[in-house]
Design a protein that fits this description.
alpha/beta; binds N-[3-({4-[(3-aminopropyl)amino]butyl}amino)propyl]acetamide; binds zinc ion
């Protein structure tokens, strides 16, 4: 299995997040990536495929915002990292904003996703990592791992959130379509619903989105991921959400996985992209499922039984001490 990673992703260090009214140490640390690297051994550095493949998912205005947000924040005399404090959710005129404070609200949906000095570079090379993995999977018709950081699945076309700035899985899916693949399936097994990915492809019939995650009635991101969200227009029936209760362990997880895999098999995908989060681990500090390290090998084997070229894209997972072993166990199934 070819493994891809770019060290520039370590430059993203958001420091703190606003959580339940307090500034707390940010869960999405550079040390996560170091722990994974230690466990999986040597990786290949992606080539630079430029911004074109990012623009298949994200509009130019969003990329322009992201690129200069931290510098704009500093130029405005603000301390620390760039973060919004007001969000334009109510009825309003079309937005044409110039102030960084206003733009941060326009292009985000939570206050847990600060933009630091190294964020753009890290996110850019994370996306390039996913693109290199797609090309390798398509060329050899086999499976690859993209060690992406920061993660991507909460990020929509023009908004950041949930520790995510560019949607690596979506960028990978669009790259496969651009390369001539007709149908791409995305299986999201992070603890949290992949609301950004769902939103990007909600009206698409050529990209299937299937997600197993904590019930949004109890867990972040709260507003998306319910079972009755099934897609719209040409995408009707091409979103499948399988929410599970807190406390879920392997015995309840596996039947949901079987349902997900049946749907993917029926779809007839040319390529599978797995948004893999190890925050389903029993010891995860911010999540509430009960999977064990060895379970990831079984889950991955179930997924591999689809016999599809598969790109595994790294999403969440915050139990840093166990993260390397959890990722290695998952990759062993391929
Ligand atoms: C990619 C991913 O797994 N994103 C998860 C985003 C969840 N953010 C909201 C949960 C807040 C928990 N924050 C705890 C702070 C401890 N420092
Ligand atoms: Zn997560």
């Amino acid at each position: 299995m070819r493994l891809f990673f770019d060290p520039r992703q370590l430059e993203h260090d958001p420091g703190q997040e606003l959580h339940n009214g307090a500034w707390t140490a940010h869960s999405e640390l550079p040390g996560r990536t170091r722990a994974i690297l230690e466990a999986i051994g040597s990786t290949e550095t992606p080539q630079d495929r430029g911004e074109g493949p990012l623009l298949r998912v994200h509009p130019p205005s969003y990329l322009a915002f992201l690129k200069t947000a931290h510098a704009d924040w500093q130029a405005a005399g603000r301390p620390g990292n760039a973060i919004g404090y007001t969000w334009p959710v109510a009825r309003r005129r079309p937005l044409n904003l110039s102030r960084i404070d206003a733009k941060l609200g326009q292009y985000s949906y939570d206050a847990a996703t600060p933009i630091a000095s190294g964020t753009w570079s890290a996110a850019y090379w994370g996306a390039q990592t996913a693109l290199a993995a797609v090309d390798a999977s398509l060329a050899a018709e086999n499976s690859t791992f993209a060690l992406c950081r920061p993660p991507g699945h909460h990020c929509g076309a023009d908004y950041l959130g949930g520790y995510c700035y560019l949607n690596n899985a979506a960028i990978a899916a669009e790259a496969a379509i651009a390369a001539g693949k007709r149908r791409v399936a995305i299986l999201d097994v992070d603890y949290h619903h992949g609301n950004g990915t769902q939103d990007i492809f909600y009206d698409r019939g050529d990209i299937l989105f299937v997600s197993i995650h904590a019930d949004p009635a109890t867990d972040y991101p709260f507003y998306w991921g319910h079972g009755d969200e099934t897609g719209e227009g040409a995408g009707e029936g091409f979103t499948l959400n399988l929410p599970l209760p807190q406390g879920t362990g392997l015995s309840a997880y596996r039947p949901a996985l079987a349902t997900a895999l049946d749907r993917i098999a029926a779809f007839g995908a040319d390529l599978l992209i797995v948004s893999y989060g190890a925050d389903t681990f029993v010891g995860d500090p911010i999540s509430h499922f009960a999977l064990e390290t060895a379970d990831y090998a079984l889950i991955a084997r179930d997924i591999a039984s689809l016999r599809l070229p598969t790109v595994v894209v790294m999403e969440g997972g915050y139990a840093v001490d166990a993260l390397g072993a959890n990722v290695a166990a998952f990759l062993s199934g391929f």
